[in-house]
Design brief:
- With 65 residues, the protein is mainly β.
- It has a single domain, classed as Roll (SH3 type barrels), CATH 2.30.30.
- β2 and β3 form a beta hairpin.
- Pfam families: Carb_anhydrase.
- It comes from Triticum urartu (Red wild einkorn).
- This is Alpha-carbonic anhydrase domain-containing protein.
Length: 65
């Protein structure tokens, strides 16, 4: 797990800025895309100044042979 205390970037959703606070990985993935599971998944945890948490999930590629 990687935690960020300073400015590590942000996304804006409906006028609210969500700042990147944490990265962590899951292997294998917890989610699927079109029924397909991947070897690893990255969770990017963002939080607004009001304390609202929001997670963004992204499957990563399969392991290299």
């Amino acid at each position: 797990m990687v935690r960020f205390e300073g400015d590590a970037g942000s996304v804006s959703i409906v006028g609210t800025a969500y700042h990147l606070r944490q990265l962590h990985w899951h292997a294998p993935t917890e989610h699927s895309v079109n029924g397909r599971r991947y070897d690893m998944e990255l969770h990017m945890v963002h939080q607004s100044a009001q304390g609202k948490g929001r997670r963004h999930r992204r499957p990563l590629r399969d392991r290299c042979p």
